[in-house]
Amino acid sequence: MITIYGDIDSGNCYKIYLLCHLLDIEFQWQAMDIAKGDLQTTEFLAKNPQGKVPLVELADGRFLTESNAILHYLAKGSKLVPADAYLNAKVYQWLFFEQYSHEPYIAVARFIKRFQGMPESRKAEFESKQGGGHKALKVMNDQLSQTAFLIGEQFSLADIALYAYTHVAEEGGFNLVDYPAIRRWIKQIQLMPNYVGMQLKN
Amino acid sequence: MITIYGDIDSGNCYKIYLLCHLLDIEFQWQAMDIAKGDLQTTEFLAKNPQGKVPLVELADGRFLTESNAILHYLAKGSKLVPADAYLNAKVYQWLFFEQYSHEPYIAVARFIKRFQGMPESRKAEFESKQGGGHKALKVMNDQLSQTAFLIGEQFSLADIALYAYTHVAEEGGFNLVDYPAIRRWIKQIQLMPNYVGMQLKN
Q1: On chain A, which terminus has fewer CB atoms closer than 10 Å, C or N?
Q2: Which of residues 59-118 of A touch B (CB under 8 A)?
Q3: pTM of the model
């Protein structure tokens, strides 16, 4: 069985948690509290010198980092990763879009606002994240106005990766009212069998 | 045959160019000059509304964006993508690392210094990129001190993606003198059969 070291408040960790539920993958969750400094202990740094979660430990003790690489590893061969070469590449197009054009704006703004309580020292940075975040939301909304899911009519790994921070974008100050296609898509994902929200289940 | 819309001065475009040479993939190169505004023409925006390169047009007229998703598409099934599930995931770990922890520092600093000539208005931003860039180089150097290539003893897609901006990191103000393992690895890649540098061949 795999062990996931994660903080469920982090979208990057939650996306792994959601994937495991949707695909019925067995896992052990090792809760790490970022705010309490759990990532800076000698014990954790021995596992991941970069001091970041999510971190996955395989049954044989080897480790994987980078949330979307972990998604790729866990979803391989599943219905969430199309065999068709073009649709398959589209999944990865969205995964890289997420880490380059979405997460650095929306996740960082959310962290400053929700978890740091918007300190004066980061207010300018918070403001600077709004433009890029809305640009990313617009790209998603444009696509979701044309197709049910990000790569087309098929629900895929791309939706899981993008859903994680998008469904809590308002916590980063991004009002979703102008993105009706995103709101429709969020509801659709929340109705899926085995869906779990951003809280650990007992 | 695929058409690659790219600016060879961009590491994200060059990595596709290098991959095609190493794997002997036929392609047509459509040179786009970012500095001259080639990405903002109506004609190009019709192909990619985000106005970014690299953009790949497949033989059937469909498009792909995101440099590392394009690498994934083109290298599928080749010797550059290991079949072993763990090594395979490691490739993607490095690809996501590149776009999240390496490119936003090293490529942006290089752009400001080399292509914008370090305007006063971006000097603070340039300085702010140095810490993150060195952090990424240290992660690479630590790995390359232990193994020949990024995922181990096997040359892979990960090396191509990371090589693109690393071998010109000095143009972004990152002196590689303190990263001997990276310098050794750069030389090794440059000696590979079919290697091409960052200039278009006639």
Answers
A1: C
A2: 62, 64-70, 72-73, 76, 85-86, 88-90, 92-93, 95-97, 99-100, 103-104
A3: 0.98
